[in-house]
Amino acid sequence: MNQIDPRKIMAGVQRRRAVMALRGRSATMSMTAMPAPLVSLGGQPLPEQLPDTTPTTSPAEVDAQMLQLRERLTVRDMSAERFAQAALLCHEAAHAITAAVYGGVIRTVTADPAKAAKVGREHFGGEHFGDGVHGVTTYKTSPVRPELTTLAGPIAHARFCVGGQRRPTRREVDRVLQDEGQHDAEAITAAGGWIGDIFGEVNAIVERLWTPICELAQRIHDEGEVGHSTVLDVLGAPENDPGVALSLLRNGAAPGTFTVTPAAV
């Protein structure tokens, strides 16, 4: 029978406690040194704590970027509302351009609905003139062939809607005459005209004058409302003596193919 030594038992207990204490400190240090897990307990990635390096853009830089974007936009990028407004601008510009070429003197032309209603009521009378009217062209002196200038608006409108690169068909123009150009159709009929008689002639005129029509449409958009001097400027006709330039345009010359020296004042 072995004799039990209490001192040996106590020494063994102390050694085991020391070993357990060392193991505990080692485990704590290991856990502290471990990197944070990339996946949470729910299985979703945890966001990395990175410094915020998002660059700040000044308002001037934002404006410059937006300007570059607008310059790259095409007709395909337009909203339906802006597309319709651009077509209407071409519509009114064509009235004014052809009227000036055929001897008319423009009082005012606008594609702003509020201004159109106001100008229309003042010029034509009638409390409800503005109902359904989005643009208007008025004259101090009427053109010598009003039926041409009246139909030019719907034809330019339709031409823009089909891309601006070709003459619109009769069916495409009829769609405009049944909608935005309804007042034009009524004016031609009231004057005793028939669209079929002048359709080809006016289509050719609009094609020849398409560049100044588009330029005037832009001016109307920028300024809201323009008069005769702006129309002459777009046509390249001297304001103090436009007769020669307008005669050349009336007889088939294309805008930009001739130069007229203004008469001395």
From TrEMBL:
Superkingdom of origin organism: Bacteria
Protein name (Swiss-Prot/TrEMBL): Peptidase M41 domain-containing protein
Source organism: Mycolicibacter arupensis
